[in-house]
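ingest -> validate -> predict -> emit
validate: passed (alphabet ok, no gaps, 310 aa)
predict: started
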Amino acid sequence: MSGILDTLCRMVDSGRVPHALLLHEDDGGGGVAVAMQFLQHLYGGNPRVAKMIHPDIHFIFPLVQAGDSVSEQYAREWRALVQENPAFSEGDLYEALGFEGKNTVIAVKEANAMLRMLSQYSLEGGYTTVLIYLPEKMNSVAANKLLKILEEPPQQTLFLMVTHAPERLLPTILSRCQLFRVDSGTDASEVTLRYDDGGLLAELMQAAISRNLSAALEVGEQLAELPSRDSMRAFCRYAAEKMRRVFLVQQGLPQLAGDDAQAREWAAACKKSFPRKALEALDKASALIGRNVNQRILFTDFVNRIYVNI
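emit:
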């Protein structure tokens, strides 16, 4: 991950830190670890950053939907999780907080607490940072409150967000953030895609766009015959990243999608609703891989969902 850290640290050294940074990770991809290392540099190596007790750094994360708490009340559990396993998953967080199997959300009470906190001066005279884990879990009222403050941020205020699904954020929030793709083991200062050359996805998209159902189903057969479940999951991750890029282009944010001519081409050919429908289909397929499900049936269903929604 040195690439992304080098880029972020150069921002600090040049005095040009954006007021909103969005780190896009896969679940368990280490986005929070990158964020914490960046904050170490931003705050001059202050040991309280590593201990997660710096008074000007505040953490927000999803809580139970029916609850009346704010993240600060779970600070001890949050610190223990991040320090023990910086590359934790969303499921790890809910297990640590005792929220397994429950609906979670970042609610308006959390947003109001954040606004009250930001109305105060920095205790140490430097940056005030709000690190939000999974901002896509904000309900609509909370999201709009965040948008309002992103439009007119207080001086030396940094919003540092770690997301699994940037396409689920308000496009107006996305447009106010500088986006980085955190990809473990690669130079994450640029969005990187892995899974051979993506030939199967390209074939599927071409077949669906040209309304060639027979060719689309043939791709489904090839997906079902991939050599391992890991390679099937890799395809799903690759395709999901591509669909997120298509979504960003369709939302008028091509700069966040990278230099991806293929994504621009697909964005022009697909319905505006297609990326979300495709991501739902990919989520379902990925969840079923490894279970006692016939892979041919699984990918035939996936191909059908892509074909009918494009």
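Residues 134 and 163 are 5 Å apart (CA to CA).
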